[in-house]
What we know:
The protein has 510 residues and is an alpha/beta fold. Among the domains are: 3-171, Rossmann fold, CATH 3.40.50.980; 331-400, Luciferase, Domain 3 (Luciferase, domain 3, Roll); 404-502, 2-Layer Sandwich (GMP Synthetase, Chain A, domain 3), CATH 3.30.300.30. 32% of the residues lie in helices and 25% in strands. The protein contains 17 helices and 24 strands. It has a nine-stranded mixed β-sheet with strand order 2-1-10-9-11-12-13-14-15, sandwiched between helices. A four-stranded parallel β-sheet has the order 4-3-5-6, sandwiched between helices. β23, α16 (458-469) and β24 (477-481) form a beta-alpha-beta unit. α9 (226-236) crosses α10. The longest helix has 17 residues, at 29-45. The model has no long low-confidence stretch (mean pLDDT 91).
Amino acid sequence: MRIIDFFDQGVRYHSNNIAFIDGEERLTYGEADRRSRRIAAALHGRGFGKGTHIGVYSPNANIAFLALLGLMRAEGIWLPINPRNSVDTNVDLSTRFDMEVLFYHSAFTKQAKEIVDAVPGIKETICLDELDTWLEGYDDNFDCGPEEDNELLAIFPTGGTTGKSKGVLMNHAAIETWYANYYTHFGYYENSVHLVVAPMTHTAGILGGMHFARGGTNVMMAAVSPEGILQAIQEHGVTHLFLPPTVLYMMLALDSVGDYDCSSLQHFIVGAAPTSLEKLKEAVKVFGPVMTEAYGQVEAPAAVAMKAPWDYLGENGEMIDRRLKGIGRPGAFNQVAILDDDGKEVERGEAGEICIRGRLVTLGYYKNEEATAEAREFGWHHTGDVGVMDDDGYITIVDRKKDMIITGGFNVYPNEVEQVLSEHPAVQEAAVIGIPDEKWGEAVKACVQLKPDQDVTGDDLIGMVKDRLGGVKAPKTVDIMDDLPRSAVGKVLKTELRKPYWENTDRNVS
Length: 510
């Protein structure tokens, strides 16, 4: 089953259901189906058949999702172009991933022209707002053949938080396994309403396909607005949404967060970065026991381990902190192990690298066999995350392996310090890094973003961590920042935070 096959299930059994909402525009499954078939026919008619590398450059919008369905029906290979990236980044990705066709939204006409001028391989560009003109003469009866073994869906860029993005060869089998894990662990039913607010070029877009088979609705939001998200949940009766932790924190910081009716929510999925335990507990109080966590990475997308509300609630409805803090249990269709540096599984309760194998793991990196081989050492895919698995199979992430700070011979995992800092009522988000220190080798530094109209001193925060974790793990210095540097999908860029301190040394800051 490919995403287009899940969509066709929705068409077959729920043709009159609303598939997409974008402002005042509503499209049924039947209407969207006919448009997708015409787009596929036009692509093939212009010589862009199976295997063509096709970019979609747009904010979240109905017409962007139609283009996506069309290229999938044409069996093209999707190149997600994140509108939050710089033009230079999108030029680099489009060049290295061999883009041939570009669909673009009129809001990005200038940027699209810059990409086309800089990428010699692009043969055709289509403005999404002029799609009807481009489709003239093509009918709506085009269909694709059956899926072949290891057929590609997309080439997804890695996060780029530790250097230049690699291209992940995302095959349909990985997405099918992702969906199977979610259907098994969470349950997806008729009449779901999914809010697409995080960029559809990433998890939020593919999650939209999860709702197709049972005729669910995808509601588009073109821009992230904490208050707008709350309004959309209330207006549309949203049942499912995915957000990175940073947006959740912004929502919780609103004085009005409790004024909206969010009782329709079934799964408020948080992922893409570690989440503060205290913020999760606050979110459960605000939104109810619907907070859901999904752990993965581009190479093994969003379903390595999962945490549903019933995983962290006891028999009497009380929250089990150690489970709420963790990322849940491995998906039913995955093999997950905690391995040491020699590729051997550690004892339960001991820290090691989270590794996975199975159909969720994608095929490797585009034109980069060396990186593929490195990530697959010992026959497992290595996530680069350090975690601990308990006797019941629940996993807690300790930190990114590359982010570990070694100070005076002691290992300090930044996530542990960040969790404590996030408990302070004035702190919206914290990032902890290691910086050069003549005496200790590395010193712990905290970079903190405060909630609006809040205040706290660095000394107060240092004292708080020292009381909880001891002097070794406490930051030596604290920077209060207006905003933390972020990637296009909202992840904090620790590379950028470290760069001023390490760029004139012999250490690689990534």
